[in-house]
Design brief:
Blueprint lengths: L7 H6 L1 H33 L7 H47 L2 H5 L3 H18 L2 H24 L1 H7 L2 H39 L1 H6 L3 H53 L5 H42 L22 E8 L8 E8 L4 E6 L5 H8 L10 E3 L2 E2 L5 H6 L1 E4 L10 H5 L8 H10 L3 H6 L17 H14 L4 E5 L7 H10 L1 H4 L3 E6 L2 H4 L4 E6 L2 E6 L1 H5 L5 H14 L1
Helix pairs in contact: 2-3, 2-6, 2-11, 3-5, 5-8, 5-11, 6-7, 6-11, 7-10, 8-10, 8-11, 10-11, 15-17
Length: 579
């Protein structure tokens, strides 16, 4: 049960549902146990015609019990199965909420397919354990206890003991199978996760696959992983499939004993023919719990294995979060940024930034210029606290960044990445993503600032146009400008443009930056780019190379240094433009 400790709050909240479900199960099982005894009495009445006058009463009782069974079975299903469905909802929400908490660092080393498998197959397996599993365990315990009690006290204890000899063998066999089923089901889930990951990756990259004519090779990979699911399932079935017939065989041995020894007792008039019929009825009643043991163990082992996989995720904690040093009285950011001897390396890699020192005053526009891989975008990751900077190396308004509540920090920074992610919703909803209650006038205003208004109005449905997955139906430039409008709508104190206009031509880029001049006056702006046209109007330009600041100054000052990287890149891009 230790695997299910993460669900204790759910079980406490829904304890009444399970309580009433078990109560109705007990009522159902009592009614079921009553039925064979009444049938035995009826047989004795038939065998003794002198008692036939009371037969109608017992027939009426059987009809009444059948009706009550229908009612009680309805209610236990409503309570137990209903609670299990709520558990599925609860667990899936818990998982998704945990996905939202975890840092980008966690996702760097995780496959999407594996996480999707956790939220689908594994959650369903846990739900089945607490639906069918709970019912069958309750049935097995209650029916077995009641039936054996009636058989011993009202029929014959010797016949009962003889017929139940196979029960310990069933328990022993099931115990031997438990560990193997658990391990093999984990392999099944891992194979499913691998297949899910391949399918998700192929759907996302369908244009690349078609452009490189990779359909056949991807199909072969899919077939290999599909075969992996078949193989691991067959590996599991070889064990679980053997368990069910074994239990059924041992249950059949009980019937053989009952027929032989029970017939002997009837012939010798130790028990009546009615008792013999009732005993076989009880034995049939016990056969289901015996046969269900294998299925129950299968369900519980699958649920336990899935919950163990889910727990492996739930124990993962984000590295970046509001800690003891967080000052929740900090509600506002002005925008003065200081990097003090900042060095940073992603786990397992060489340092990306080395001894970075820079001060950007509130309302100032600073540009970070450099070649690809020089460490420019890492500064954004650290400012947004997607990754954690070393202590005493990053300050905003003179306060160390870790003291700001994460929500305050990120709400104060408008971030426009190069790879602009759009959701499969309308253009209006994409722009208003960070401010859902924004008015239409506000949305139109920022779309004009981002020079995307005309594009939007050219679509038949305008702002109500549905965007394809990841914005696939829009051009790269349109996606970037929509992402820019989304950031502007947040009215941030700090605006970061991380190569966010790389998909538009130079003239459009300069026009957009020109439109933003008035907007940027009271905001700290960081423009990250490898294009001179994007950075040349900044108050200060920092030239990065291999994580180190090698130049700093205005556009004119940097051009005056004919031996510097900025000068060389400027003339190189000038030649490319002329070409």
């Amino acid at each position: 049960m230790k695997h299910f400790l993460a669900l204790k709050d759910f079980f406490l909240e829904n304890r009444l549902a399970y309580f009433f479900g078990i109560v109705w199960l007990i009522i159902t099982n009592i009614l079921q146990v009553t039925m064979p005894k009444i049938l035995g009495i009826i047989v004795d009445f038939i065998a003794n015609p002198g008692l036939a006058g009371d037969l109608a009463i017992y027939i009426f009782i059987i009809v009444l019990i059948a009706l009550l069974l229908a009612v009680s079975r309805y209610f236990w299903r409503m309570y137990v199965v209903g609670a299990a469905r709520k558990l599925e909802y609860y667990l899936r929400n818990m998982l998704f909420a945990h996905f939202q908490r975890l840092d980008p660092k966690f996702y760097d080393n995780q496959k999407t397919g594996d996480l999707m498998a956790l939220a689908t197959n594994d959650v369903i397996a846990v739900r089945m354990a607490f639906a069918g599993g709970v019912v069958m365990v309750s049935d097995a315990v209650i029916i077995t206890g009641l039936a054996v009690g009636v058989m011993v006290t009202t029929i014959d204890p010797r016949l009962t003991a003889a017929a139940l000899i196979p029960l310990p063998l069933i328990a022993l066999g099931v115990a031997r199978f438990n560990t193997v089923i658990h391990a093999r089901f984990k392999q099944v889930q891992a194979a499913f996760a691998s297949l899910t990951d391949l399918v998700q990756e192929n759907i996302s990259a369908i244009r690349v696959i078609k452009s490189f004519v990779l359909e056949n090779s991807q199909l072969q990979k899919f077939n290999v992983r599909s075969q992996g699911i078949v193989d691991t399932n067959m590996h599991l079935v070889k064990v679980s499939g053997l368990l069910y017939p074994l239990v059924q065989y041992l249950a059949s041995v009980s019937f053989l004993i009952a027929l032989g020894y029970g017939g002997y007792l009837v012939i010798n008039e130790v028990i009546s023919i009615g008792d013999f019929i009732a005993f076989n009825g009880y034995l049939m009643l016990l056969t289901w719990p015996m046969m269900a043991v294998g299925y129950v163990i299968n369900l519980l082992q699958r649920g336990t294995a899935s919950m163990a996989r889910i727990n492996e995720l739930l124990v993962q904690e984000p590295e970046v979060l509001d800690g003891p040093e967080t000052d929740h009285s900090l509600k506002q950011i002005q925008g003065r940024i200081e990097f003090k001897n900042l060095s940073f390396a992603y786990q397992g890699f060489d340092p990306v930034l080395k001894g970075f020192n820079l001060t950007i005053n509130s309302g100032e526009t600073a540009a970070i210029f450099g070649r690809t891989g020089s460490g420019k975008s890492t500064l954004t990751d650290l400012l947004l606290r997607l990754y954690e900077a070393k202590p005493k190396s990053l300050f905003i308004d003179g306060i160390e960044i870790t003291r700001y509540p994460l929500q305050v920090l990120r709400n104060s920074i408008g971030y426009v990445p190069q790879d602009s992610f759009l959701f499969s919703i309308t253009i209006k909803e994409n722009i208003a993503l960070g401010k859902p209650k924004a008015s239409m006038d506000e949305i139109i205003a920022v779309s004009k600032l981002a020079s995307v208004y005309e594009d939007i109005m050219s679509f038949p449905d305008g702002f109500e146009t549905l965007v394809g997955e990841r914005g696939i139906t829009l051009s790269g430039g349109q996606k970037q400008r929509l992402a820019l409008a989304r950031a502007l709508l947040m009215d941030p104190s700090i605006l970061i443009l991380d190569d966010s206009l790389s998909a538009v031509d130079t003239a459009t880029e300069e026009a957009i930056l020109s439109f933003l001049d008035e907007y940027r006056k009271d905001r700290t702006t960081i423009i990250i780019s490898h294009r001179i046209s994007a950075v040349k109007y900044a108050h200060k330009i920092v030239v990065l190379d291999d994580g180190v600041i090698i130049q700093q100054g205005t556009h004119e000052e940097l051009l005056a240094d004919s031996g510097g990287l900025y000068y060389r890149m400027y003339h190189l891009q000038l030649l490319e433009g002329e070409g």
